[in-house]
Amino acid sequence: MNNQFMDKVQLAEELLHLRKAQSHWEKSMVIDRLRKVRKFRHLLVENREKIAQALFIDSGKPYEETLGSEILPLAEACRFLEKNASQILKPKKVRSSDTPWWMFFQKSWVHRKPRGIIGVIGTWNYPLFLNGVQILQALVAGNGLVWKPSENSNETNAILSDLLQKADFPKEIFKVLSSSRESGPVLIDSNIDFVVMTGSVETGKVIAKKCADRLIPSTLELSGTDSLILLEDGDLELAVKAAWFGTNINAGQTCMATRRFLVPEKMIDLVKAKLIDLAKNFKPRNILMESQANYALPLIESAISEGAELLWPQNQSSIWNKGLFDACILTNVRKEMAICNHAIFVPVLCLLSYKSLEEAVEISNFSPFGLCASIFTSNIELGKKTALALNVGSISINDTIVPNAHPATPFGGVGLSGWGATQGEAGLLEMTRPLVISQVSGKFRPHYEIATPLASDSIPIVEGLLLANHSPTLLGKLKGWLKFISSAFNKKQT
After folding, report:
1. pTM (2 decimals)?
2. pLDDT in tens, 348-403
3. Is residue 99 part of a domain?
4. Sheet of 418-419: strands edge to edge?
5. How far is CA 241 from the centre of its chain?
6. How many domains, in total, are found in the chain?
């Protein structure tokens, strides 16, 4: 699929119609929107083989990966919305216990309003799952949507768009742009209200600047240099398998792939041996974008020139050969090396040894990226304590990557990994803005006098309120109550 390119004038015209349609869509019942999500979920199952074929054509992704990393997590995200979106989006009454007593006559509600028109700039590495979650959350929240899909996943883009239409989402509130690179800037410069973008740091920075010029909020899901930390009491064999899986899933073309494997010094030799055993049975994978290989190879070369050693493959010339990238393992890597501080999209695993847990945390936090991390330990409390010291968005204890697809949890990073959240309740709320409605009964409005010559008369009342509610001593509170009551009585007498 590649829709006809629209320039700024053409898109502006489309957005006029979309905004009108969105004003009707947001008035629809959430439960009606969720019926469409349910139908979409069922369509995912019924069309799983077509989806898998499309992903194979686009990127060579095998069927088992498509099922486990694209279709199943998207179906679970749909089910989460079906079960929880109505409750998340419904108006919430502010509790009486949270209302200051001097605002006794006030009642307040917090509504969630759709942002309006959301622009989604899609990704190619998980084009069904990641795009699908963001699109569905935007629509369920009542927004209109403009989707600029990746030019590297046209077959999958077409199926996703088709399934959304078959699920009965109104075509008037969902627009798909051309996947060409030129469509991105046109979308960002258009009259949209919010941007969700998944991609590189460089593109994220450009979008952030564009949004800042117009004060448009955004969610940026960017790349990472994720670490996997094996503690001394951790299951070494399980950690090695996890690091290998995290490095090679989707041929390393994963934002939360394992890039750095932090190992206690005394365990490093055993880890090396087990990694080599796994590497011997590994078949090099196709990399969709040759530019990603061309970006990573100089970083590998630089690391080797600075003292790192190539553990696998045996020959450096075998890393990238005829469009296939062999899993690359580097040892004797230091945290300062560029390979640890640049986002790469190929299967490269860097081994770093550490002497103490404090040093492991320091190494992990040295990277300017902060997407995800993993910790392997038999001491869960120690794992949780260590997790709290890491500057990332998501941490798995005794597993990697897969726990981050939990449909009820938010996903997002810090630092160069972006901001905001997708997925879960937080991701759905990102697609909305709060609207507060307050109702005040009676006619008692002493604060109105602040705008009159009698303003100074209210000072004793306000001071009394302040002391009565917030004085650090009981005596101060009592004095405050006396001052408030006497001042209010005198005020009433006059």
Report:
1. 0.94
2. 999 999 999 999 999 999 999 999 999 999 999 999 999 999 999 999 999 999 99
3. yes
4. 174-176, 144-148, 117-121, 194-198, 218-221, 418-419
5. 26
6. 3
